[in-house]
Amino acid sequence: MASSKVIEVFYDVVSPYSWLGFEVMCRYRNVWNIDLKLRPAFLGGVMKGAGNKPPGLVPNKFLYMSKDLDRLAQYCNVPLQPPSNPAEAMFEKGSLAAMRFVTAVQDRESGGDKQTENVSRELWRRIWSLDQDITQPDSLTEAAVKAGLSHKEIEEALALATTDGIKDKLKNATQEALEHGAFGFPMIVCHVDGKKEMFFGSDRFELMAHCIGEKWLGPQPDKVQANL
Amino acid sequence: MASSKVIEVFYDVVSPYSWLGFEVMCRYRNVWNIDLKLRPAFLGGVMKGAGNKPPGLVPNKFLYMSKDLDRLAQYCNVPLQPPSNPAEAMFEKGSLAAMRFVTAVQDRESGGDKQTENVSRELWRRIWSLDQDITQPDSLTEAAVKAGLSHKEIEEALALATTDGIKDKLKNATQEALEHGAFGFPMIVCHVDGKKEMFFGSDRFELMAHCIGEKWLGPQPDKVQANL
Hints:
Two copies of one chain form a homodimer.
Chain A: E1 5-11, H1 16-28, E2 35-40, H2 43-50, H3 59-76, H4 86-93, H5 96-108, H6 114-128, H7 137-146, H8 151-161, H9 164-179, E3 187-192, E4 195-200, H10 205-212, H11 221-226
Parallel strand pairs in A: 1-2
Antiparallel strand pairs in A: 1-3, 3-4
Helix pairs in contact in A: 1-3, 1-6, 2-9, 5-6, 5-8, 5-9, 6-7, 7-8
Enzyme class (chains A, B): transferase
InterPro entries (chains A, B): DSBA-like_thioredoxin_dom, GST_Kappa/NadH, GSTK, HCCAis_GSTk, Thioredoxin-like_sf
Organism (chains A, B): Knipowitschia caucasica
C-alpha cells in the first residue's frame, strides 16, 4: 500500500553521517507509515554547488567529529570505523565511480530497491568500516557480490555506470538535492500532505518524527519494539 | 546534595542554538541527577581561536538554519524569532558587552546562579525574540530588571563588567572552552566518573543522556512528566 508520506534520503557512501542516516531510515521504513526513496547522489557536486567546505578543515571540529562519529556509531549500532587516511579516502580517491555504480544498480533494478540498499551498505562497509578501496571496478564488484548480485548483474551495472545516461542521472540527482537546499549529506526530504520538509544530517530524527506525525523510538527501533 | 555528574554549558547569548541548549539543560537540572554549571563565554573568541567561520556564510546553509531554528523553537517551546537584521545583530553589534555583564552578574552572585540564568534568558529574549539591542548599558539594565535584579545590584554589575577582572574572567572561560575542543556554541561538557564527554550543539541530548546514564524525555520533560 502506497503511503502518503514519501521520504527521500539523498546520500553518498563517502559520507559517514550519511551511513548513520541511511541505516536509521532503512530501519524505520517498516516502523513508520512511509514510502522511503533512496536517492544516491554525489556529495562532491553538492559541496561545490553550494559553495560549502568540508567541516574537518577546522582542527577542533575534526577532532570533535571523530569522537562524535564514534559515539553515534555505537549508539546507532553501525560498525563505523574511520579509514586510516580519511583525507585520501574522501577527497583524493572520492566516490564518483562508486556513486555512478550505485546509480546504475538502481537504474537496472525493478520491483523495489533492495539491491540499491545492499550495494550502498557494502560500499560504506568497505570505505567506512574495513578501510578498503571503493574506486576500482574490482572493489565495486566485491561489494556487489556481498550485496547478493549475480555476476551477470554486476557486469551489466559496471558497463552501465560508465554511460552518459548514468552520469547524467547522478548529476541530475545531485542537482535536485541542491534545488531542495542541500549543502551536504545526508539530506532527508519529507513530503507529507503536499508539503515538503527538509532535514540535514543524522540528528533531526526526533524532530522529523514530530513534523510528520510519527513516533521516534531511537536509532534502533527494532530493539525497542522487541521490548514492548 | 552534590551530584557526581557535573555538566557545564558554555554559551553566548548571541547564539540562537545556545538558547535552545540552555533552556533544555535548565529544564533537566531537576529531572536528571546532575549539577549544572552555567558557563557564559564569548562566541567571537571561540570562532577566532578555533579558526571557524559562521555557518550562515553558505547560502543554502543560512536558509536551512532559519527553517531549522523555527522548527526547533516550536518543538522546544522557546519563543525564538530572528532579528530583522541578523548579520548586524550578531556580527556588527555582537555580544561582548552583554557577556561581560552576564559574567559580572555571575561573579557577584552567591548561593546559586538564578540571576545568571534569568539575566541570560532576558538577554536572549531581547536579541533573539524581540529584536532589541543588547549592547548599551540601558539595554542590559532593562534585561536585568526583568530578570529580577535590584537597581543596586544592576548598578554594581554594570560597573564590575568594565573592570579588567571581569574582562579576564570572560577571556578565561572562552579559553577554557577552546581547550575543551570548542569550535562554536553551545558546547556542553559532561564530567561523569572522572571522564569527560563533550557535546557540541543542541542536537545531541538523546546521545548525551545515553552516555551519562540518564533518560531522555524530549526537550520538554515537564510536559512528559505531567502525563506520567
